[in-house]
Amino acid sequence: MKIKFSYLSCLAIIAFGLVSFSGCTESTILGSDLIPGTDKVNVRDTTITNLIVNNVLRTDSTVFTGGPSNVNIVIGSITDDNVFGKSHGIAYAQFDLPSDTFRFKGSGVTIDSAILYIPYSGFYGDSMANLSFKVVQMNEPTFKADSSYRYFHQLGINNSVVWGNTTVNALQCRDSAFIYGTSTMGPSLKIPLNNTFKQLFLSQSNNGAAEFDTDSTFRLWMNGLALVPDTAVNGRTLLYLSMSGAKISFQYKNSEEDSLVAHFGFSIYDCGHQNFFARNYSGSQAANYINTGKASGDSLIFLQEAPGIYANLQIPGLENFPANAAINQAELVINQASINMDPNANIYTAPDNLMLYKYANQAMDSLGYVVDYGNPSSPNTSFGGQKTVISNVGGVEIVQYKFNIARYMQLLLKGSETNYGFRLIASSPYEVDSRRVVVGGSGEQNNTSMHVRIIYTKQ
């Protein structure tokens, strides 16, 4: 273990109201909770730089989409990110009838419009860049509400049956829509469906088809819709949507009334849905660093929210730190790499949070929580992992993340903890997400390299 030391000699507080000092550097600031109450102490500031950090990419079979507990979806495409490569998301969904034995009201019905609405909650990438989508017919006979699907499970579609097209940007999705005097649809992705789709539904209604009698017969007939981005054109945006509140709204009139509306809504308990999401690292900078398995580690670490790249982190010999040390502070420090190697970092922004797990065994195939994290149901905010902006020049941010591992370190020295290594991930509350960041990895000479800073008292 290679350690750099700087010695701090500190006098204990001997009088009330002692004047505090300004202009101290980070390495010389000790909080009151870090200074032992002896007449004279020897506090040491230590930096451990020999971390071995490796980029890892694995298919994550634990990431599921669909089912009644997860209605969030990420769709769109990013094709111009030469650092992390390409990403795209597809959404699949079924819908319910407005009511059992549904028929468009009255005679002489004319459908003015049919629009697919999916509530919008945000975006990632370039809010002004255009995204093109098509709505196509699904061909997945077993598609159903009570099934969850892994993110890499691409469902069957019929590309020859296209029900609609649209080109939008994220800013346009923020607009609300007024639906024929009956309601207002909040911010949403809005896709007009074509005349073929409208006439198909009108024909079923006019003919009294059994497919419009119950939700189950309707979903057997209209197996589902797939919302597919155009990945052949330049894409710079992913949209965050929610199937909760999604619907197909028909605005129509008959021989006696106008301004009539019928909503074919989405139900989490009745309707199948899924979010397929794919990454392609070919030709990207990340491709040169993924799964290298270098014994010395990778100098740059590429972190992506799931499904994406994570890092394995080892601190060789950490358990051999002086056993008589009282750990006052121990921080894992993670710095964003130079912006010069990631020119789109202001568009494809860094994750708000990283998360650090410990490996529970030497095989590194089982994860556990670091003791400093606390109770998983109510974790300690002091554990860290939050994004902190440490530089902002001309609107270009450089960020840093820190983790507090002081308790882990102290227990390790007492023999009550193990040093099997750690897993570092880009954290998100969503099953599928998109933010990414390049940070310093292994390497003692690089000022952005990952390191552990320890302040301790030698006893």
TrEMBL record:
UniProt-listed PROSITE patterns: PROKAR_LIPOPROTEIN
Signal sequence annotation: 1-22
Keywords annotated in UniProt: Signal
Designated name of the protein: DUF4270 domain-containing protein
Organism per entry: Chitinophaga caeni
